[in-house]
Amino acid sequence: MTVGPVAGKANSCTVVTAPITIAGTTSTVAAAASKVACSSHAFTRADVAISDVNANELVGMYDAVKGGVAFSKLTTKALAMQGFAIAVNNNFYNALQNYQISTGALPATCTGLYTEACQPSISRAQYASLVTKDGNIKSSAGFIPGSTEVLTLARRDQLSGTQATSNIYFASEVCNALDAKSKVNNHGGALTVMRTADATAYAPGLVVNENVQTGDVETDLKLTTGYSIGVIALSKGNSTSYKFVKLDGVSPNFAKGGTSVLGSTALRNNMINGSWGLQMTAYAVYPTAAATYDAKKAAKADLIQQMVSDLSNASLHDLSAIGYFNGTGTNAYKQTQVSRVAGNNCSPLITRAN
Q: Do 188 and 175 contact (CB within 8 A), yes or no?
């Protein structure tokens, strides 16, 4: 989809002269001469796209996209494993650390330290309880008894692969009843994910922000007042404005016993050895069914196939927190040693040989 001025339609884009709220979210865009708001859009077909999760999984979860994807006309190819983690703002990190010191879960010498040994831990069950309507943790008191600090849940919107990842991992959104033919999920056994509109009824002590972009989540995670929490790509592990926490006692961004945050390329180590489970299979998606599609034309088809092949090749890339499926020679270490059965993000991680 392209958004912008449409030929023959006056005022289809205008300068943002006053702050605007993005429809369906609580995110705002500040007024600036360099920013425009567009009331019109047009559709154009992409030659190839990359998704955090399988397109079937995304559509299985979200009614908003079910009518717009013809799965019989799409081909998906697994590229790599992409890591994610739970992050909190510095205020919440310090409070969690102090509370877990007080309970004996962390030693007293941990005060103020950001190391593997001193990183506070949140359980998968706790986070699932926070981000779903079914759970009973709906404020900072659920993590720190007696806390009255306002807690902000920085989630993504319903068309985000990152949010789909969170929903699969913490709410079992498509793990139970995704029908392969209809792509409809009857959500048997899945938890109901908390959205902004649900906060008043289900979580009066929680602020729920549905953010359009990763940068908006980071803005929430950089809050200097109150507490904030959310899922974000593991590649963001070197930020000093917010911090990752352990998940079920396992650190996403420190080596065991480590005292400094892993470098960007080393972040994948926790994924490669299989100790870090919050990682999803990323896919290339491209149209192939109809002869009129570009992907059926020889030159374009060759280009797409080469792009897909190159994107999964560790010999050509060194992106942080990405476990590649292909690589040779000195680059073989970049390959992930874990993958999922048949690329199903709801299946458990299995080890594989380099």
A: no
